[in-house]
Amino acid sequence: MVRHKEFDPDTAVADAMDLFWRRGYEATSVQDLVEHTGVGRRSMYDTFGDKHSLYLRALDRYLTLAEDGFREKAAADGLSAIRSLFSLLLESPADDFRGCLFVNSSTELGPSDDAVAERLAQHSAVARETLAGMIRQGQRDGSVTDRIDAETATAVAFNAWVGVRVQVRARTPRDQIIHDVEKLLALLNGSRT
After folding, report:
1. Residue 92 and residue 11 share a domain
2. Are 119 and 63 in contact (CB under 8 A)?
């Protein structure tokens, strides 16, 4: 009788997430997953099903980690919370061009994969609501201008958030991204730049 090597499924999902994040879904083969996770092919299929099922688990993990990161970004005022949220996006090393698995999945699989699209829509709603809460807080405490309604400010901030992740993936120089984020924060604050 052949013994299957024991492994930690959570670690395997984390390793798969890293690989899908770097390479994308289509460019990652089952053999790549076997080699990167150290989990045998049979054990992988027995535990996760197919490659797509493992991808969904990896995407779920990523989105949960991202949402947990959003929730941790409370600050003294709304604008500082937004700044902190954007700083979270820029904390990766300057040579890390993976971008964002949310954005990468949106462009690669979102248009054709209902299970992925559903997860992305749920995550978008959480991210938008988090930003909306920060903007409303900022309008109450005066750190975010009330000359822009909260819904419009949320739309602008959310699309800038997505854009920052695209810029990282496109290897835009970090100082340019920081400059753009500072312009967004000045706009939200009502400052003339």
Report:
1. no
2. yes
CATH number at residue 36: 1.10.10.60
> What whole-number distance in Å separates Cα of residue 123 and Cα of residue 129?
10
Average pLDDT value for residue range 168-186: 93
Looking at the 3D structure of the chain, how many domains does it have?
Answer: 2
> pTM value?
0.87
Given a contact cutoff of 8 angstroms between Cβ atoms, the answer to whether 161 and 89 are in contact is yes
Least confident window among 9-18, 87-96, 171-180, 184-193: 87-96
Crossing angle, helix 174-189 and helix 78-89, to 10 degrees? 160
pLDDT at 193: 58
Judge if 109 and 179 occupy the same domain. yes
Locate tokens 């939200």: which residue?
188
Structure tokens at 15: 């390793």
Do 80 and 151 reside in the same domain of the chain? yes
Alpha helices by DSSP H, 7-149: 9-23, 30-37, 41-48, 51-71, 78-89, 101-108, 114-141
Mind listing the pLDDT tens digit for each residue in 10-67? 999 999 999 999 999 999 999 999 999 999 999 999 999 999 999 999 999 999 998 8
Cα 101 from Cα 22, distance rounded (Å): 9
Find, among 21, 13, 102, the residue nearest to 61 by Cα. 13
Domain boundaries, position 115: 73-189
Contact in structure between 59 and 116 (CB atoms under 8 Å): yes
